[in-house]
C-alpha cells in the first residue's frame, strides 16, 4: 500500500523569508496560490505591450489611485499574487508599510497571452473569494476583454465579454471610459 503524499503549504511570511534567504533566483517568477508555489508564465511581447498600454491608459487616474504594475497583492495568509495591473486606493506611503490586500484593490487586470484558462479558472475565483470588487482579464489571443464585477463566493455575479468597438470603465471611476481596442492594441 502506497503512503499518502504529504504536501507542505507555505504561508506568505514563509514565502517572503525564502525569497530573502535567496532560495529563489532573481528571475524566478513565482506566485503563492493557496500555499503552493506556482511558476508564472513567461511574459511574451504582446503581453508586455498590453501591460504598457494599460499603464498609459490609467495614467490620468494617478492623482486618485495608485497604478500598481506586476507587484504583489496579498489575498490571504497563504496567497500572494502578482497581477499585471491593479488600481489601488490612494495611500501616501504607496503601501511601503506592507503589501496591499484585497481591501485596497479597486480593480485587478490580468493579461492572458498563454494563461487564459489559468487566469479565468484559478485566479478569478481567488479574487472573488477575497472580495476584489472588479477583475478584467485581457484575452490577447481571442482579442476580447472579460469584465468581472460583484464578487460572490468564488465567482462574480456580473461577467461581460467585450470586443473592439465597445467601451469599458473601472467601476470605481465610471467617467474614465476606455476603448477596448486601445487596451488590446488594434483599431
Describe this structure in words.
- The chain has helices at 12-20, 45-58, 116-130, 180-184; strands spanning 30-33, 36-39, 65-69, 73-76, 79-81, 85-89, 105-112, 134-139, 144-152, 155-162, 167-168, 178-179.
- Strand 7, helix 3 (116-130) and strand 8 (134-139) form a beta-alpha-beta unit.
- A six-stranded mixed β-sheet has the order 3-6-7-8-9-10. A two-stranded antiparallel ribbon has the order 1-2. Strands 4-5 form a two-stranded antiparallel sheet.
- With 187 residues, the protein is of the alpha+beta class.
- The chain is built from four helices and twelve strands; from the N terminus they run H-E-E-H-E-E-E-E-E-H-E-E-E-E-E-H.
- The model has no long low-confidence stretch (mean pLDDT 91).
Summarize the structure.
The protein has 187 residues and is α+β, with helices and mostly antiparallel strands.
Shape: globular
| Percent range for β-strand residues | 25-35%
Distance N to C terminus: 61 Å
Radius of gyration: 17 Å
Query: Helix tally?
Result: 4
Note the main attributes of this structure.
187 residues; alpha+beta; 4 helices
Which helices and strands, and how do they pair?
Layout (H helix, E strand, L loop, with lengths): L11 H9 L9 E4 L2 E4 L5 H14 L6 E5 L3 E4 L2 E3 L3 E5 L15 E8 L3 H15 L3 E6 L4 E9 L2 E8 L4 E2 L9 E2 H5 L3
Parallel strand pairs: 7-8
Antiparallel strand pairs: 1-2, 3-6, 4-5, 6-7, 8-9, 9-10, 11-12
